[in-house]
Amino acid sequence: MTDDVGADHPGTVASGVDRAAPGDTALLVDVMLGKLATYLRMCGYDAEYVLDSEDEAGDSEGNHDPRTDPGDDSLLARADAEGRVLLTRDVRLAERASRSVLLTEREPIAQLRELESVGFAVSLDEEPSRCGVCNGRVEAVGRDESVPDYAPSPAETALWRCRDCGQVFWRGSHWRDVDVRLNGGEQ
Question: How many other CB atoms are there within 10 angstroms of residue 16's CB atom?
Fold first, then answer.
């Protein structure tokens, strides 16, 4: 993993991408942008973070360490095979991708602003559609369904559950904090 943002960095550059919206743009988020993946999921994007997924390699038992960087060639092949736009801070990697956005900023809100500057729609969904943890689809929790102890009562608060990992979400203080930051609050 290299962080090629230096004095000779070309700045935020989108290649092969004119406009992007959550319903029609799938993303592959490079290793150095993990927090951004969570924010993009909150905005409704199908944002796969490379360290969350298992590659087909793995060891002889089929085990895979999800914290292992799969390498540039693997990222490029996956982005192409899945029709995803690659988001990265690595100049050389962005140059090799058929569709990419090269980011310069380190903070997720500033990175979202960069994405806006190249035509990405960035705002929180009225209702969550993606799991911030695993990128799975979420569905509404019924008012009488049981939920984990950490979640408020579904009879009092609208809740959503990830279909893949089971995580329960609601529009609480974290949601409000991100909303404020997206709408001009502090980073």
Answer: 11
